Amino acid sequence: MSKDSLRVAIIIGQDGVGTTAAVWFAGQAGQRDDIEVDIIDLAEACLPEALPVIGGRVPQSVQDLAPWLAEADAFVIVTPNRSFPASLKNAIDWYRDEWKAKPVAFVSYGDESGGLRAVEQLRLVFADLQAMTVRDTVIFHDHRGCFTEAGRPLEPERCSTAARNLLDQLVWWARALKSARTQEEEIMSVNREIHLVSRPAGEPALSDFKLVETAIPEPGEGQVLVRNTWLSVDPYMRGRMDDVESYIPPFPLGAALDGSAVGEVVESRSADIPVGATVVHFLGWREYAVVDAAAATVIDPTLVPAQAFLGALGTTGLTAYTALTQVAPVKEGDVVFISGAAGAVGSIAGQIARKLGASRVIGSAGGPEKGKRLIADFGYDAAIDYKAGALPAQLAEAAPEGIDVYLDNVGGSHLEAAIGAARPGGRIALVGAISGYNEPVPGPGNLFQAYTKELNLRGMLITSYLHLFGEYIPQAISWLADGSLYTEETVIEGIDQAPAAFLALLRGANTGKMLVRLA
Question: In angstroms, rounded to a whole number, what is the distance separating the alpha carbons of residues 317 and 311?
């Protein structure tokens, strides 16, 4: 056997004639010195008939078969009848990456069609798995009488010629695709990540960040390797760039930043999370991350796009929901004011306020175009352009009888204007203060009104409310499904552009959630 031999897995979809055909074909392949054959009988694999729920534990029998499929350079599927057997489709469904970018050939048997109808259906299935199917096939008609008792075809010359042609194609494609996979693996062996190299003095600059290449890390026991596909870009990260202890530690210099991310598990050493699962975790700002299985949450990207779990279905959406239901609860008929209304939290909060019974929802954003979007798309009744004039006057015009609830994403002059406009007993949720993240801004000069009006000003850290995910996620999914919750994303492409995306976020250049797409 040559060191350059290809490993070909012959998969028996159904016993009986299928076994005879597989053994005969293995003999044909064994005459070549460039092929090493494994025969996989699905009757012996004992794969469960029911697939698990998303993120469910992978059965041992599935784990046992996976290496045989992963090590194969090509596959030959032996299938009967007008449609392929359930056992074969079940086996295909249990795996994904094991089939990807590999050639698949078919040996079929049946009556008049010789199993070709099953083959054509299987071509569609494997195409969806990004496998390449070989056109030539080996066909056995009249399967009950196409082999001798010794297991030889009744038409040996025709069948042997068909097998040679099939194997020639299979070997050519196997070598080409193996070479392509090897090149891709070499390219993908490098991990790129964004490091913080200096602490910003005021507004951050691109020079505070550096794109660094490292080796892709190896997962340990109980860990998974995740290829990140989406990164979340969030204002709170600015505070972590200063060397100041807070509710969350500062970013160390010369190390990768982190943040929420969504990605695909490409290697797993955890029985709880299989390869191919889509997960949310907190090691973003890098292309590959090793994550403790306990720190990764498996999500179902068939329900909504995966990146929604960084926005409306992530802490962004939960922040909007919690602020208006727990921290500054909206009551029926309330007038609600929200700053940063076109941002990630604000664009969702306006719609939630309406769902909670607010009679009027007012939003503040920068520029007339964003103001139009607030009213047209995000559920607001009125929009304030904070760049166009004094906030107190604009807020008084939008809410002449005052406001009951204020969700503060900005701080500074917005908070002062809200305190001035608040009715007695008003509620204020202090969620963020982006206006003061780069440079300190004066506190509200009218803070005394907080006690003369008996206002409730309450700060919130979303980490204290994560237990509400179980209540919020089903509700938010139903809103997204029925179209009553509209979301928008500002998407920047590539890990190298993540710092630029962050600076744009601080300038208010985004509408909705700011994201970086890696794949």
Answer: 6
Return the residue matching tokens 């999370």: 273
- Cα distance between residue 517 and residue 261, in whole Å: 10
Which helix (H) or strand (E) is 423 found in, with range? strand 422-430
Q: Among residues 5, 80, 67, which one has the least CA distance to residue 40? A: 67
What is the C-alpha separation between 127 and 124, in angstroms, rounded? 5
For the stretch 15-41, pLDDT in tens is 778 899 999 999 999 999 999 999 999
Give the helix, strand, coil percentages of the chain, each rounded to 5: 40, 25, 35
* pLDDT tens per residue, range 142-197: 766 678 888 888 888 999 999 999 999 999 999 999 999 887 776 667 899 999 99
Strands of the 6-12 sheet, one edge to the other: 35-41, 6-12, 74-80, 103-109, 132-140
Domains and CATH numbers, the chain: 6-186 (3.40.50.360), 191-306+491-517 (3.90.180.10), 315-482 (3.40.50.720)
d(CA 158, CA 146): 12
Helices within 132-262 (DSSP H only): 156-187, 237-240
Q: How far apart are CA 146 and CA 141, in angstroms?
A: 7
Report the candidate in 439, 434, 417 with the shortest Cα–Cα distance to residue 426: 417
What lies within 8 Å, CB to CB, of 72 at 6+ separation is: 7, 8, 9, 38, 98, 102
pTM: 0.68
Q: What is the CA radius of gyration of the chain?
A: 30
Task: Tell me which residues of the chain have a pLDDT lower than 70.
Answer: 1-3, 52-56, 112, 114, 143-145, 186-188, 434-441
Q: How far apart are CA 461 and CA 455, in angstroms?
A: 20
